[in-house]
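Posting for a labmate who doesn't have an account.
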Amino acid sequence: MKANVETCLGLFEVTFSSKGLVSVVFPNGENERMLPNDLEFPSKEDFELWLGITSRALRNFMEGIEPSELPPFDLSLGTPFQQEVWNKLLEIQWGEVWTYARLGRELGKPNGARAAGSACGANPIPVLIPCHRVLSSSGGLCGFTAGLPWKQRLLELEGAWLPLKSASAA
């Protein structure tokens, strides 16, 4: 079941299954994915409850306020490894950033930076499952399904990323 959530930074599309939030699509639609046609719909009560929680969380986030509550997530469309990565991303605190290498190490896979990065790129619930908080080993922005400007904006909203000063401004 789909719905739109209006925020100060645009209209996000959210989709729920009977298990919880299954997808968040940015206003630019760049991270839209095909979802199975056979998703079980939530009950009307669950849908309304989860939509309210999701709407508050996205609106707060887009205003630079850490969400106090998240809806249940349905991660069942991911592989077991992707689900493991997405759950690990939830451990990265508001305003904190990790590198893909650290994410790999945290997963017990010291050489797993690329695999972890790939799983981040497949994250169907960006923003609320904070794949934007993962940076390259050099500490720079790289890879984000909605585009690097969105990644930088999300980090700035958390106070976690300041644009690099140009050499002439240094």
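Reply:
Got it, the structure tokens are right above this. The chain is about 30% helix and 15% strand.
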